[in-house]
Amino acid sequence: MNTNCIVAQSGGPTSAINASLAGVIKAINDSDMYDTVYGSLHGVTGVLNDDFINLTDICKSSDDFLICLSCSPAMFLGSCRYKLPDHEKDNSDYKRIFNTFEKLNIGAFFYIGGNDSMDTAAKLTAYAKIIGSDVRIVGIPKTIDNDLICTDHTPGFGSAAKYIATSILEMAHDTFIYELQSVTIAEIMGRDAGWLTAASALARNKYNDTPQLIYLPEVAFSFENFLRDVREKLRNSNNILIAVSEGIRDKSGEYISCSKSSRDIFGHSQLSGVGKTLEQLIKNEIGIKCRSVELNILQRCASHISSKTDINEAFNLGYSAVKHSEAGNTGFMASICRDSTTPYVAHVEYVDVAEVANKVKSVPRNWISPAGNDVSDELVEYIRPLIQGETETSFENGLPRYTNISHLISHSA
């Protein structure tokens, strides 16, 4: 008798995570081993609370569901930031999860997410081994931060990078209309890794050199050096545009701007306000017009300008993960391996999910300028292939037509 599957999404959303979900659903629909695929609402908490929707039935009722899903922003199944405890200290969650797996005749559990989601997948894999369960546990990567190890890059990053570069280019056009000296600061997501902020350099072209300054978390930040950099750039240009990661730190490792008393369940500092901090610094010390822009969630939900390369790779990872599980594999994460940059060619590999969990891939120091205020051509060329191609979005009443998420809206009411 064939078995069923559960798929869930966790962590922060991206413009491509639903494409990975579509890939999982399509592969299960094509499978001779798996029957029904259930969607767990709000990550692993949906499994704990028996909160599911039948994705197989939804597919049968809509001919273009997977197409629309692949191009829809955020997370169709909802998300959570729930940390499973150490099973040696408290295994009650694990018992409930695996009891649900048995009740629904589950043969595989697919978890789409970032570092913390891979932690959940690794813990479930270890517990399954202890109790002798044959449920296959599979991780599928996503994060706009591009900070997962054991993969060339992560789905979601390419689309966010395309949005960042486009936004910086558009801000440059806006900034240069005035002769008055001014500074514009774009605060970009990236708590521990500066990949997304580095993507701002893609905005540069033959007539435009913005952002003139880029600051990443990988290099210690100095207010003194920052003011010197700004003054130097103002000697040659009236209008300066600066890209800065939300997670920049000083030489002691302290975040430039964060709420030290506020941390999430995984212990991560809750960051905010670095753009405003630097804006005020420039106004006070240099005395010119300065404004800051925090792109915030727009970086991860701008599906109207997503990368076709990113969407295609996300779908392929989901599909390939199902196929690899059918061969009897468990405890792995589907991974992207780059074969060539020019032309861009990549293939899917599979890595131990425990090797990925709770680790961070930083931007290499040699891909950052010696002064720590710009990025190298090598880094730009690494990112450039990932933003290529435009998705075909259907419109309704002048707006993009996305997948119906009423199940999430009613669920939270």
From TrEMBL:
Residues of the active site: 145
Residues the record lists as binding diphosphate: 12
Site description Important for catalytic activity, residues in chain: 142
EC number: 2.7.1.90
Recorded metabolic or biological pathway in which this protein acts: Carbohydrate degradation; glycolysis; D-glyceraldehyde 3-phosphate and glycerone phosphate from D-glucose: step 3/4
Regulation: Non-allosteric.
Top-rank taxon, per record: Bacteria
GO BP annotation list: fructose 6-phosphate metabolic process
Subcellular location, principal: cytoplasm
Known cofactor(s): Mg(2+)
Cellular component terms (Gene Ontology): cytoplasm
Subunit structure: Homodimer.
PANTHER family to which the protein is assigned, alphabetical: ATP-DEPENDENT 6-PHOSPHOFRUCTOKINASE 1
Function (record text): Catalyzes the phosphorylation of D-fructose 6-phosphate, the first committing step of glycolysis. Uses inorganic phosphate (PPi) as phosphoryl donor instead of ATP like common ATP-dependent phosphofructokinases (ATP-PFKs), which renders the reaction reversible, and can thus function both in glycolysis and gluconeogenesis. Consistently, PPi-PFK can replace the enzymes of both the forward (ATP-PFK) and reverse (fructose-bisphosphatase (FBPase)) reactions.
Family designation: Belongs to the phosphofructokinase type A (PFKA) family. PPi-dependent PFK group II subfamily. Clade 'B2' sub-subfamily.
Name of this chain's protein: Pyrophosphate--fructose 6-phosphate 1-phosphotransferase
Gene behind this protein: pfp
